[in-house]
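Proteins fold reproducibly. Next comes an illustrative record:
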Amino acid sequence: MEISSENFVLSVLSDDAFVLVNKKILRYLKGDGSAAVFLGELISMHKYNLNNQTLEPDNSFPCLTRRIEYAVGLSEYKQHRILDKFKECGICKVQLKGFPAVRYVFLNFDLLVKILAADDLKYKKIDQQQFYNELNNALNQFSVPMPPIELMEHCCDNMGASLKGTLILISKHYAAAGNLIIWSSELVGRVRQWVRTRGMGKPFDFTIVTRTLGAMQKIQTETMFANYISEFVRQAKATQDIHFSQQKYDYQELLK
């Protein structure tokens, strides 16, 4: 069953009996803790009115200055400042209704969901970049003495043995020419697809990798890594199997 933006945000960000500050929202608000607390209180007020069926037809609800000040200690001045900030970035709309005028707030739940999702994506990209930085730093040590197997395997994280061994064998061959290894998610994805297809239903023979590398043209200084990987995958698809007695299932034997 699909969950609406409103229900998702209410379940994640509302604070009924305590002050809840979501780290993702806090980062979006550039560390403004008062604004994050205020937003949590507004979401709780929305939830209260929703549960009691007292929301306005446009989904807005009354936001009394004295109630907010009593609940979380924010002065009237701070409330106005934060609401102006929320209105500017589209988190909410504010409207005066009735006489005497009462402040009503309408929360933009679709935007709040996008903020939460975008934050996840941003930090996922940062983590991914960190992973490839560490992987490339380890594999580029092939151009000095050979790095410890443990270091290479650690940097490959939780990759399957067939993919891990293939990446290491390719990297060793490429680095031997003094060129810089630059693995990326796209290049690893190309190799992963070939490894899955070639090893489907049988043990993966690592001599397919070394025989393909040996048949490729000599690596030149100007040979781009991305082009080299594309050519490897193209030729590896055509590399023939050999008798099982000559196959190798441990890539470390081929590093010696």
Remarks:
- The mean pLDDT is 86.
- The chain has eleven helices and three strands.
